[in-house]
């Protein structure tokens, strides 16, 4: 995930100084455990969070590149388990929700930022991360609006703290309201920030939920492009350089190959298993980078904005999928 490209420059200290060798040993043991069938995405994230608080991440300077690559490869791998026709149906079901929720979230975020008197660029990055796809959106939009490192770090920390919480509580809420897999997949894609936790939560709920959530979330991620151009205009950046999420194209090619090439379809179960393991490992690494110092650096007002935005979009999207899908 892109959530740590700035956080890695300011690593937090663990609660206990266990020594470098012990820290590395604990980290490697947990990492290996995340490669086994016993580690679910939620368990992996929790293990990473515990390491961040108690022993520290011994390779934090490498975390951003590792999570960024692992997430993209894992998402592309999941494409080999999806059918083009089912994905297109899921995309059509989610497009109106996507447009409405992105517009509403950015608008509400702007109003909240002014009400709480939060610095403009920090508030905008939190709103964009909540509206589109968490750290990926923040990483893409921050250079467009010429955000400073502190502004990016606060937005990333805020969005990611809430994103971690979502992975644990969304499946519980989904079962409580007896959501269908399609409903839950749509809700995840709209209301959970980062792709990693969207896929993790949906995978726990069921295969159809995973297919819907992944397709809708990646379609949602494409909105980084128009929102980035809009951001360049709003913040008067004449260069208008926009980062394009190319891995989404590879995800689409993987779906096409799985649908129309019989040989690929035979190999798909093995590719999917590897992809899910990669996703589990990604969540472990993300959690391991979220130290107490990082969370404390967020501040009350930005976190309050993030929480209120997240609650608003989650409750509204839940109501919508329960009554309209």
SSE arrangement:
Layout: H1 20-33, H2 41-54, H3 63-78, H4 84-116, H5 120-131, H6 135-141, H7 149-176, H8 181-191, H9 195-205, H10 207-221, H11 224-234, H12 247-260, H13 262-288, H14 292-297, H15 300-324
Helix pairs in contact: 1-2, 2-13, 3-12, 3-13, 4-5, 4-10, 4-15, 5-6, 5-7, 5-15, 6-11, 7-9, 7-15, 8-9, 8-10, 8-15, 9-10, 9-13, 12-13
Briefly say what this structure is.
With 325 residues, the protein is mainly alpha-helical.
Structural notes for this entry:
With 325 residues, this protein is mainly alpha-helical. The chain has one domain (69-285, 297-324). The protein has 15 helices and no strands. It has helices at 20-33, 41-54, 63-78, 84-116, 120-131, 135-141, 149-176, 181-191, 195-205, 207-221, 224-234, 247-260, 262-288, 292-297, 300-324. Mean pLDDT is 83; it is low at 1-12.
